[in-house]
Design the sequence.
């Protein structure tokens, strides 16, 4: 039997959030955390709310805080997070809760939108496609794989304190993805929007983002590259 | 919020904070080189009153003030905000920043008087 403690909150009916305990029979299997949530919902309490879709770490819907660490419930095995037979599941920290484990991602997406995450090129488009050398293409590895699950940004204290001003690790990883793209010609404009004391420079390099990323990406490293680009650009 | 930051630019604040820490490290090593082998008033006074050391002390003082301004501005704009404290946040932060800057200017003037023996 696994002791599961779930964060419950329904703003319409509850005055304050509370933790609800469940005992879940995992039949001794090393299930994924999402499987445990499905067991709770199907067998113990159908009112529990959480997001899920692909259940294989591709869609990025079920980012949750499990025993204090953010991750995707669908690809996190119990053996990785359960301590002393107990599992505490909370919503991603720092974002407003809509209900139970479902958070309002508006602030997160607003920051993503700020970095204009699309290719900008003012040259005439070629007949077929804009080509890139294999070396230039390689520079995008470790950047393009982000699925926007928000595990990184919601584990970042700088994003908790200034989610409206600091772009956050997820947005900055995408920002660098286009700064590093040989086909993008808007580098100067992109950099000029990042020079203020908040957008990039609220990152103090504590690397929470890199330690929680379910895809094994390293936003801190990308932010370091952006800082270097800003520095050489302002010289 | 940006108007009260040291240089109003994230890039300059960032590089200034790094440069000032290098200056403070070098200054600490210079002072340690006299203090660690053991010193007395005559040796200490002769060391600190050399013109190059007085200039170095002034530089280190300015570096410390810039470093403190940038660092404390970061702390205050993280924790003393409307988001953290409600409507009082902005006014309280502005008061604390004003107090911080006034104190730093006082330290600068006072420090220069001490360093140059005015």
Sequence:
């Amino acid at each position: 039997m696994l002791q599961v403690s779930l964060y419950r909150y329904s703003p319409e009916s509850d005055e304050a959030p509370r933790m609800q305990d469940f005992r879940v029979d995992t039949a001794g299997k090393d299930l994924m955390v999402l499987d445990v949530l499905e067991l709770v919902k199907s067998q113990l309490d159908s009112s529990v709310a959480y997001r899920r879709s692909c259940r294989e770490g591709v869609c990025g819907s079920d980012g949750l805080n499990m025993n204090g660490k953010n991750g995707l419930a669908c690809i996190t095995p119990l053996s990785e997070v359960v301590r002393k037979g107990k599992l505490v599941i909370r919503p991603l920290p720092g974002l407003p809760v809509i209900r139970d484990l479902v958070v309002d991602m508006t602030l997160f997406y607003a920051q993503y939108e700020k970095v204009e995450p699309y290719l900008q090129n003012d040259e005439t488009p070629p007949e077929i496609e804009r080509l890139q050398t294999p070396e230039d293409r390689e520079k995008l590895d470790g950047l393009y794989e982000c699925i926007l699950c928000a595990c990184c940004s919601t584990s970042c204290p700088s994003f908790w304190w200034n989610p409206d001003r600091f772009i956050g690790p997820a947005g900055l990883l995408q920002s660098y993805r286009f700064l590093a793209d040989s086909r993008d010609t808007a580098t100067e404009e992109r950099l000029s929007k990042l020079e203020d004391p908040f957008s990039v420079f609220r990152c103090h390099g504590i690397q929470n983002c890199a330690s929680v990323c379910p895809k094994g990406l390293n936003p801190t490293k990308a932010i370091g590259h952006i800082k270097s680009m800003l520095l050489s650009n302002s010289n | 919020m940006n108007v009260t930051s040291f240089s109003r630019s994230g890039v300059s604040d960032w590089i200034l904070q790094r440069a000032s820490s290098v200056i403070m490290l070098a200054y600490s090593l210079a002072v340690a080189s006299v203090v660690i082998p053991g010193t007395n008033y005559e040796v200490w006074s002769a060391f600190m009153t050399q013109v190059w050391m007085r200039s170095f002390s002034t530089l280190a003082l300015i570096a410390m003030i810039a470093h403190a301004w940038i660092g404390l501005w970061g702390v205050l704009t993280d924790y003393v905000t409307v988001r953290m404290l409600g409507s009082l946040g902005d006014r309280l932060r502005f008061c604390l920043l004003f107090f911080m800057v006034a104190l730093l200017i006082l330290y600068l003037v006072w420090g220069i008087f001490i360093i140059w023996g005015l």
Observations:
- Chain A touches chain B at residues 157-158, 161-162, 164-165, 194-202, 227, 230-231, 234 (CB under 8 Å).
- The two ends of chain A are 62 Å apart (CA to CA).
